[in-house]
Each structure stands twice: as structure tokens, then as C-alpha cells.
Amino acid sequence: MQDIVNALVLGSIYVLISVGLTLVYGILKILHIAHAGIYTLGAFLGLMFYHLTGNFWLALFLSIILTGIAGIGVYRYFYKRVLEESRIVPLVISIGLFIVMQDLYRLIWSPYRQPFAVSFGIGDIRLKGIVITEHQVIILIVTFVSLLSMYFLMNHTKLGLAMRACAEDMAIAGTLGVDVEKTISVAFFLGSALAALAGILVGVYENNVYPTMGEVPSYKSFVVIVLGGFGSLYGAVLAGFILAFTETILVAWKGFVLPRDAIAFLVMITVLMIKPEGLFRRATR
Question: Are 241 and 17 in contact (CB under 8 A)?
């Protein structure tokens, strides 16, 4: 049962990062590797605002807003200029941008790990030998609220309908009156905000923030969207939890020799050999 709790928390982090990445890929068909740099930016901004205000929730809100705006800037000043080019061009730009981001964070915030100690005052929950820390409780609650909000947005608002239309066919959506530019900007804002949320929660959970903290999430989120079916939000959610449970179970199995981070690629290779399109059919909702 303790492993199940840990897997749910790990899966929540994977999902928050991957859903944002899936939003971007679903519309632009771009592998947004710099998304991991946005994730790190959110963590650093959250830490900075927490030190300035002493209020975690205010720091979380400010970080999400500014990181979302930064995501829009990445689209408008980098990707928008090369949308007509081969898909390899924005991919190379994204990889280069991610590397530049890491070096900028080293210059601005130093290359060392910085503690992000936050107490929520709710204490740990202990049930028959199972321990759920207050940080795990916050992660589970925030993830649930975020996913519920995304579901409502995508399925019960005009903006969600516009994003689904653009993901289906951007050109036709534009001819039918959809403001494509606004829709893409909102997708980048939401995706970046979710990445910032994940970065802050991980920073608090692990009690440290550092410039290269986005390296592992960069390929874990890639694995998740491949497993979930490129562009499928539902698939990204389910694949995130599947990967987390697989990693947790195999690590708990003492006879397994591979390190935890290698398990993601082992799972991806196995699935792609059996079902190249991913576990779930691509969906735009």
C-alpha cells in the first residue's frame, strides 16, 4: 500500500508535466523539449517569490502566471517563426533553448542546489503502517484539482473547443472563425503553467531546486506522451500513472537490476514494439 501511495504521487508529477507538453504537441506537432526548462523556471520563480513573500500559495500563483507568460514568449519569439519549416527545425531550436535555459539559471541562481523547505501545517497521515506526508497530500490534491479544471476547460468551454479544433486541423479551424493565434498562445500558457506547478511541487517535495532539475523530466515526459499516443490528453494522464506504477513496482522488486530512470525507456520500447501508435488512440480532448 505504501508503494501505491508513492506511485500515485510520482504519477501525479509525470501527469502535470506531460499534459502541458501534450497540449503543445496536439496543436503544433512540435516536441517542445524546452518545456523542461519552463518546468525548472517555475521552480526557481516559486522559490524566489516564497523567499520574498513568505506565503507559499501566493508564490505559487505568481510563479504560474509569470511562467505561463514565458511559455507564450517561447512560442512567439522562437516557434512561430519556423512553423512552416520541417519539424526538425523547431525540435533543434527547442533542444538548444533548453540548454541555454539551464546555463542562464546557473548564472542567475547559481549552479548549486537550493533548499525549498515549506511546511503546510497539516501534518503526516498515518493509517495502519502507511505514511502519507503532508507534501504528498498537497501534490495529490493539487493534481486532482488541476486535472478536473483541465477536463472542464477542454470539454465545456469555447476555448477548449477551439483548442480541440486546432489540434484536429489548424487551417480549417481558422477558416471557421477560430482565433488560431490566441488559441496557440493559451495552450502554451496553460502547458507552461502546469509545468511550473509540477516544478514547484517537486522542489518542495524533494526540498531542493537546481538548474538541471529538468533533465530527467524532459525524457520522462517524452516517454509518457509516446506511450499515451501523441496528442492524447487522456492518454498522457493514464500513461503517466502507468509509468509511475511500473517504475515503483520494479524498483520495489529487489531482483530488478536496471536503475529507475532506465525503466521508462524499457517500457516505451516494449510498448512501441507491440503497438507503435502508443497505448491509447490519439484524441483531441
Answer: no
Per-residue pLDDT tens digits for 37-74:
999 999 999 999 999 999 999 999 999 999 999 999 99
Q: Which DSSP helix (H) or strand (E) runs through 110?
A: none
Question: How far, in Å, CA of 93 to CA of 34, rounded?
Answer: 9
What distance, in Å, lies between the first and last C-alpha atoms of the chain? Answer: 32
Give the residue numbers spanning the domain of 72.
2-214
Residue 225 near residue 26, CB atoms below 8 Å: no
Alpha carbon distances (Å) from 285 to 161, 171, 233, 238: 8, 18, 6, 14
Q: Is 182 part of any domain?
A: yes
In a domain, 253, yes or no: no
Is residue 264 a part of any domain in this protein? no
User: In whole angstroms, how large is the CA radius of gyration of the chain?
Assistant: 19
| The total number of structural domains that make up the chain | 1
Of 119, 113, 110, 264, which Cα lies nearest the Cα of 205?
119
Q: How far apart are CA 42 and CA 116, in angstroms?
A: 13
CB atoms within 10 A of CB 177: 8
pLDDT digits (tens, 9 = 90+) for 237-249: 888 888 888 888 8
pTM of structure: 0.87
